[in-house]
Amino acid sequence: MPNHSRVTRRLGLKTALAAAVTTPLSSTALTSQSAAAGERPRTRLEVMSFNLRFASATEPHSWDVRRPVTRALLRRERPHVIGTQEGLFPQLLDIGDDLGRHYDRIGTGRLRGSADESMAVFYDTRRLTPVEYDHFWLSDTPYTIGSNTWGAAFPRMVTWVRFRDRQAGDREFCLMNTHFDHRGQSARERSAALMAERIAGFDPALPVVVTGDFNVAAHGNAVYDALLGAGLLDTWDTAAERGPLCGTFHGYRPLVPDGDRIDWILVTPGVTTHRAAVNTFAVDGRFPSDHLPVQASLSLG
Question: Where are the beta strands (DSSP E) in 52-146?
């Protein structure tokens, strides 16, 4: 792998928290009633993967309408790290403002510059310190910005960050965040193979956490099989405790119990998953996105 970018400055725009959020009428939190968010063990790493649905002005699901619900969700859950997909630059600024001054962001647009969709990673600066980061594109030329050689509908990419976890004895881990193509199975399979190759290039002592929208259902698909064949584990399957299962893409239609999980959090062996959940948070029937965020409570080992 090429030399990776060293983190030399904080990225993103941060402001103070705004007013208190509306109490949700419908939600499924990661934490159980016996271990509410404020009571969770301090050493556990709370991870979220969240396809934001890009910001648009199209009603009835415009970003202006969805932003308050997203704000309420994120302030309610307070993940330590969030792998996002589809976020546009102004939308990411909004989320940074809504998360507050203790969060920062690393990411870049999938085309040259920052205007296009990003694989932005948000993180709690009180808990995590970025050590290095990089981006690569899911193509035959992964370090060519915006490259797309596998027939995908759009250029696809990965953002990864090596973090130091100050509440886990300065244990380091790598977070990889991606969004696979929605149209081409061949492009998805080649993307999985490239990610497996990159993971194999990391220090084997380094725990790896993968977040993403993979656009295929877990189990019974060559994309899923390739990533698990690379040594990754599905946190949903290995979790000591799980919330109710719903299909993670709902398209603003009724939720599908026991539906397909196309959004996953994967980890390398040695990472313990205490709980996994698909979060069905909504306010007055309004969802923050056309995807449900997925979450996992981890110990790095």
Answer: 81-85, 103-106, 121-124, 128-137
Backbone phi and psi for residue 59, each to the nearest 5 degrees, phi listed first: -90, 155
Render pLDDT for 4-55 as a digit per residue (tens, 0 to 9).
Answer: 444 433 333 222 222 222 223 333 444 443 344 445 677 899 999 999 999 9
Domains and CATH numbers, the chain: 43-299 (3.60.10.10)
Structure tokens at 250: 């709902």
Please report how the helices 222-229 and 185-200 are oriented relative to each other, as an axis angle in degrees rounded to 10.
Answer: 10
Pairing of strands 241-242, 233-234: unpaired
Phi-psi region of 251 (alpha: psi -120 to 50; beta: other; left: phi over 0): left
What pTM does this model have? 0.88
Rounded to a whole number of angstroms, the CA Rg of the chain reads 18
The DSSP-derived string for 46-74 is: EEEEEE-------TTS-HHHHHHHHHHHH
